[in-house]
Amino acid sequence: MRYEQARSALPSNRRPVGTWLLILAGMVFVTVILGGATRLTGSGLSMVHWQPLHMLPPLTDAEWQQAFADYRQSPQGRLINAGIDLAGFKGIFWLEYIHRAWDRAIGLVFIVPFLWFVARRRLGRRDAPRLLALFVLGALQGVLGWAMVASGLVDRPSVSHYLLAAHLLAALAIYAALVWAAMLYLHEADLSTEIPVGAPILRRRLYVPLMLVCLTMAAGALVAGLKAGLIYNTFPTMGGAILPADAWALTPLWRNFLDDPTLAQFDHRVLAILTWAACVSVWWSSWGLKFPLRIRQAMAMVPMAATIQAALGIATLLNVVPLPLAVAHQAGAFLLFTTLLWAVFVLRVVR
User: Fold this and answer.
1) Which pLDDT band holds residue 191 (cuts at 50, 70, 90)?
2) Exposed e or buried b for every residue in 306-323, given b needs 16+ CB within 10 A?
3) Does the structure show a pLDDT above 80 at 10?
4) 3-state secondary structure of 238
5) What residues have CB less than 8 Å from 89, skipping those under 6 apart?
6) Which of 25-39, 42-56, 331-345 comes out lowest in average pLDDT?
């Protein structure tokens, strides 16, 4: 398809749609940060009921006492926070409530402008059904989030690390789709039909660190769910060893890759190092090529973001996962992913 034909298939004034999609992506980013904070503070299990249509928090003393009583019957309330008082419960409750309320706000910020853009025919011919499917995926993400929380309300005071990883990756998929769609609406008119020498090869090379970032984030979710960041808080070795002997404590052997905290941390370390090396390597391979300024700027951001994220990860580990560093590390993963996605985008060619 010629570039002019591609442009004619989209609305003439598409920046408002791109801005809306970018706002939604930003809101998803914020909810990921809120989710990380609720997990790290133990707030995620404070609301033991899922009421998707109930928007208000407890408003009376009786309602607070009932919510507190329900929490004290949960595994976390009985086994971890048995001595918590009502004031302490409110402290963890409010963070989880804000997280859930923010998720509902994302749905509202999506559906109202979506209906307006559809009515005004401001979306591309194929965009409306795709975006509606993304809305459905967001709703299913809410169901997955509750399934994750419910896994920690039965017989143990922690959520399933499998569901935690799935919940994070689903958020990443939604975020990626929103960011990509926003970039198309905001910037595709700026792209050139001329293919710089080396651009197609470089774009394919970027898929390697992009895939590694996703794998590293999944491994990081397993580390978080297994609380594996609280052990072997040394770097580059793990307690003086490359791989401690207790990494293979579970049987059958394959379970160690998913359920053993030591091996989970080792896997996360290895994937993080490979991700950093891949980011630096792909940037180095672009050095000296005659690319436009936008491409050179995007490529220069890749090793910078990777190095900052690696430093945050090491600092989080060495300091035994303090809340500010851990939240920054989770945010850094999404920012590194965004940087790579942007680099892929600016190398994109409309054929």
Assistant:
1) low
2) beebbebbbebbeeebee
3) no
4) strand
5) 46, 67, 68, 71, 81
6) 42-56
Q: Which residues of 266-298 are buried (b: 16+ CB within 10 A; e: fewer)?
A: bbbbebbeebbebbeebbeebeeeebeeebeeb
d(CA 89, CA 43): 9
The pLDDT of 61-88, averaged and rounded, is: 94
SS3 letters across 251-274? CCHHHHHHHCHHHHHHHHHHHHHH
> pLDDT, tens digit, for every residue of 274-314?
999 999 999 999 987 888 888 899 999 999 999 999 999 99
pLDDT in tens, 198-223: 788 999 999 999 999 999 999 999 99
Could you read off the pLDDT of 232-247 as tens digits, one per residue? 999 999 999 999 988 8
Q: What is the average pLDDT across 147-167?
A: 94
Phi, psi at residue 238, to the nearest 5°?
A: -110, 95
Domain boundaries along the sequence of the chain:
1-190, 195-351
Write the single-letter amino acid at 316. Answer: T
Give the Cα separation of 32 and 38 in Å (integer). 10
Structure tokens, 164:
């935690």
* β partners of residue 241: 238
Instruction: Determine contact, residues 219/264, Cβ cutoff 8 Å.
Output: yes
Cβ atoms of 309 and 336 within 8 Å: the answer is yes
CA distance 70 to 49: 9
Q: What type of residue is 351? A: R
**Separation in Å, CA 210 to CA 25, 27, 282, 307, 334:** 18, 22, 11, 15, 11
CA triple 141-143-146, angle to 5 deg: 110
For the record, the structure tokens of 241 come out as 């060893």
Q: Token pair for residue 86?
A: 């009502």
